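re the bet — no i am not wrong, look at it urself. input seq straight from the record:
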Amino acid sequence: MADRAAVYVIDDDAAMRDSLAFLLDVNGFAPKVFETAGAFLSEAADRPATCVVVSDIRMPGMNGIELVRKLKNEGLAVPVILITGHGDVALAVEAMKAGAVDFIEKPFDDAVLLSAIRTALEARPAEGENTARKEAETRLNELSPRERDVLQGLVAGKINKVIAHELNISPRTVEVYRANLMAKTGARSMSELMRIALAAGL
């Protein structure tokens, strides 16, 4: 089937590569797997116009975030979705700032990854950025000034204790604000909240 979109999977874990390749194949994509970012880059120039990269973050040699930066520096406009088993706020922020289109924590629901891939394939860079920004700003409109302060602390990669100290509130109060942020923005994970904040230009 010539019309199947190519999805390049980069992961040093053979079982994960096989699992993702099977998932993508049965859902109508054309997967191609690589053990390292270097192996993928040796073929990157020959990739089809419509494709997405799904890469693990922690790999021997070049990691996923370094791969995103390299593709960007070389002008290769390919959307990259990063996956990791070591998700934390600072890592999500770094990934999104580097230019990843999405950041997904393992273990993830298959539907979450498939939805992220379809979104990445459908997005047109210029339109996508403007639409994503407007959408993100709308989702942040309901936040109180204090909730925005907490969100900015999170985007800066600060832990609850540091945010609490800087805002002169208790760590428990920061937790309450974090829960409010998730509820008001509709974010299902901390990485999704970071994505919304960064898209809105915070």
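see?? The radius of gyration is 18 Å. told u. also DSSP finds ten helices and five strands in the chain. so pay up
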